[in-house]
Amino acid sequence: MTLPSIALLGAGSMGRAILSGLLKPGVEVNGPVHVTNRTDARAAEFDGVAGVRAHSLESNPAANRDAVAQAGIVIVAVKPGMVPDLLDEIASSLVPGAIVVSVAAGVRAATFEAHLPITVSVIRTMPNTPAVVGKAVTGLAPGSRASASEVAVVRSLFETVGTVVEVTEDGLDALGTISGSGPAYVFLLIEALTQAAIGKGFSPEQAAELANGTFVGATALLEASGKTPEELRIQVTSPKGTTERALAVLQDADLPALFASATDAALARTRELAAGA
Question: Which residues of this UniProt protein bind NADP(+) (predicted)?
Answer without folding.
Answer: 9-14, 77-80
